């Protein structure tokens, strides 16, 4: 009887942990824009950036910048140079994050492809076809 009891407990524990892991690690392609919008809200610290140039150059740089997404569709980016950038953002049905920076001199849109978005990790890809450059940003959520 004890063996049966422990077997049932172990099976229940495995089933419970398997279900919660699936919920936490949902693939971006399976997420709705609404889910992504709620998960991205908060402050993220850039852990590192990986870059490629189409000539073959490749590198990895440490991060430190902070990016805060607010629930009202605005963002604040604090660069490692202590500059502060602000603007608005939205997520498209194509799983792209559009960040519109606005200041007194100009405004422009940056488009980043969201590759990973979990409760703790955000990985985005940015490509510049004109300059033949590609960057991948690895963020960790800090609050």
Overview of this protein structure:
The protein has 143 residues and is of the alpha+beta class. 22% of the residues lie in helices and 48% in strands. The chain has an 8-stranded antiparallel barrel. Strand 3 and strand 4 form a beta hairpin. The N terminus is likely disordered.
Q: Structural class of the secondary elements?
A: alpha+beta
Overall average residue pLDDT:
83
Q: Bin the helical content.
A: 10-25%
Tell me the count of domains.
1
Number of strands: 9
Summarize the structure.
This protein has 143 residues and is of the alpha+beta class. It is built from two helices and nine strands.
Write the layout of secondary structure elements.
Blueprint lengths: L1 H23 L8 H8 L1 E12 L4 E5 L3 E4 L4 E5 L5 E8 L4 E7 L4 E11 L3 E8 L4 E9 L2
Antiparallel strand pairs: 1-2, 1-3, 1-9, 3-4, 4-5, 5-6, 6-7, 7-8, 8-9
